[in-house]
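Task: encode each sequence below as structure tokens.

Item 1
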Amino acid sequence: MTGACVATPPLVPAGAPAYVLAADVRTILPRLDLVDLTISDPPYPWFTALQRLEREHGTLGPPETLYPVYTFLAQWFPFVLRRTTRAVWITTHRLYVPFYRALVPARAALGVWPTGVPDVCLLHVGPPLRAAPSPAVRALHRSGQDSPEAFWAALLALTPGTPPGLVFDPFCGTGSGLSAARRAGYRALGCEQDAAVLARLRLAQPAFVIGPAGPSQESDHGSFAA
């Protein structure tokens, strides 16, 4: 899963235990150093279009032919895989599982489990787990809102290895995953570009440091939504 990283100016200020970058994650990934774990509940781009395609044709076809969705995921997911040393945990709708699967290297194992939310799955990329996530753990996931800290804490506990280390959430929302990482003894780095969500994050996690990503923050990738 790991790859060599070119030395770059640090994204996280020295001594910051929990830091959130107010930026589009696709602009900061080229500057991201290695992280121990990645956890996230990414957005569902072009979801309505995928639902309509499945409803009308019964299939989505090869992921590579659905250019907008495949391109969106390709702009960040492979970077995350290369820069994560231990494990990646992702929650997503079942319609997106083939896209993630197409981007996981053949040598890597992809685990997929249902959550307690209909049609939403939990994905794991990494070495064998201490145990598969139980139905009780998976039932903690929430869709359309941040999942509780207990959900992310249970996934961190299942991952081989122990703190300290760095947990990264590229779509951190109001920070429940980062907070779980901090309570487990990890440093935490998140990314969130939505101003309204950042405002809620400041209220939910007053101890977190929120700052800009620096001079590379401007993006020409366009919006996540469509």
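Item 2
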Amino acid sequence: MDDSGNLFIADLSNHRVRKVTFFEPVVLESLTIAPATATIAAGLTQQFTATGNFSDSSPQDLTRSVTWSSNNEPVATIAAGDLATGVADGTATITATLAGINDWAALNVAQLATCGDTLTTHATLSADLDCTGTTGTVFTVAADSVVFDGQGYKVLAPSAALMVSSIGNPGVSILNMDLSGTASNGLKISGGSGNLVSSVDVSYTGVTPAGYGVQLESSTNNVIQNVTATNRNPGVWLTGTSGGNTIQNNNFSGNNFAIHASQLGQGNSYLNNDLPNTTTCAIIVGATIRFRSRATTIR
């Protein structure tokens, strides 16, 4: 061995000296399941994948090598081939395990929403939904902590008065759906607290701005994010004692008013919203015009 710690072995038969090279063993350090969260209806399936993260920083697809399991088989099962099946409403934890290392994902099994539904459990869409004949409210959330995940699908209801309503329910999540069209109003949350509206399009596609995109009516500590509400009047409307809400990363372009908030609500935050091309003004708090701007960062 030399001063640098290199080991050499003499090969006397060939009069050569060979350097011995040691390699660190590559070991599995962690697993990553994708998707981390998914929502399906009972009877439908969800594909999961498992990626192994090794000590040499290399990833490897281990989907068919891990052992898959569900902690709640009355809600969802998963076969050895990584395909989960929804059984009944609820939530199951899907786990992948290999060599004592595991990761997990949340699988929500929800009712398949239809036109005019009252939602009391998790709900989802599995395709675009035509609710042309609906003239009242298309979906009414009527229980706490309901997750309504549209999976990116579109709901067509050109004659509806309101696309989604939630009254007095805390912890509701309304996610990933296209509600744009000529419905009079988009989405209303009345009362309750701690609700989330994310990645929803409630734009009006008629000629001139009409109705509200999102209304919070005396509702507190909600998050409205990544929402598109264009050609509305206003884009988002905070009425009554709505306070402590976070309105962030939304597209409120082309509205008569982008954000209209009551003076009674306190502690609302408006962060990084796009407000271009407003007809009258960008933000009104009570009867006060705050400013016109493309991006907001005010509290």
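Check on item 2: The chain has two domains: 28-109, 113-298. Residues 129 and 155 are 5 Å apart (CA to CA).
End of task.
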